[in-house]
Design goal:
Elements: H1 2-15, E1 19-26, H2 27-37, E2 46-49, E3 57-68, E4 71-86, E5 89-108, E6 111-121, H3 126-144, E7 146-147, H4 148-156, H5 159-163, E8 167-180, E9 183-194
Length: about 200
């Protein structure tokens, strides 16, 4: 009986025109996305300059995402050897710092996007900041962007195995994204189909 009621509820809700839904996304989910899309190099590093075999390099690692007021804050640990490469060694200085950039979430059709990147904390080194600033204000927001419709379709693709019903997402339109406490709240219209 319970299964029949659930089936009818799913069919009824899916037969409606696009319906409003609210989805809550955790900071950890955004952090996993950032790690998968940007920090996917050797040892979870993203090389801004050089690579794992370069004597002189700048890389960021260990991204951590939190929510502060209405903003998403991304903290990364940056390491560098700045100088000149001579016979396979870097003659210069080694610098290590934690840097923060904050972003405002923005609904972009089917995607979760970000705007108003604001660097909250940089290093004491002007040379390192010259390299880190574009990475934090442009690369990080671009790589955190997530197509929510694609993710939902991937989740629903296994619905037949788990529920016995083939669920599919026909359309998704994000209207707003707001940081509320420990969640990024997504308000959207969605059109689901149940077979």
């Amino acid at each position: 009986m319970r299964r029949i009621v659930l089936s009818l509820a799913l069919i009824f809700s899916a037969s409606q025109a696009a319906s409003a839904i609210e989805v809550k996304v955790s900071a950890q989910a955004l952090e996993r996305t950032l790690r998968a899309q940007l920090f996917n190099g050797p040892q979870g590093r993203y090389y801004i300059r050089g690579d794992a075999n370069s004597p002189c390099y700048v890389y960021a690692e260990s991204p951590h995402v939190t929510f502060v007021q209405d903003r998403i804050v991304v903290r990364v640990h940056a390491r560098s050897k700045l100088g000149t490469s001579v016979r396979g060694a870097c003659l210069g200085v080694s610098l290590t710092t934690d840097t923060d950039v904050s972003l405002i979430p923005e609904a972009e059709e089917e995607s979760i996007g970000f705007r108003d990147a604001r660097i909250e904390k940089l290093s004491e080194s002007r040379e390192l900041n010259f390299i880190l600033a574009p990475f934090l204000s442009h690369k990080v927001p671009a790589q955190m962007k997530v197509n929510a419709a694609v993710l939902m379709r991937q989740l629903l693709s296994r619905s037949t195995e788990t529920t016995g019903y083939a669920l599919s997402l026909d359309s998704l339109k994000l209207h707003s994204l707001l940081v509320e406490g420990e969640s990024l709240v997504m308000d959207a219209d969605a059109n689901l189909k149940v077979n």
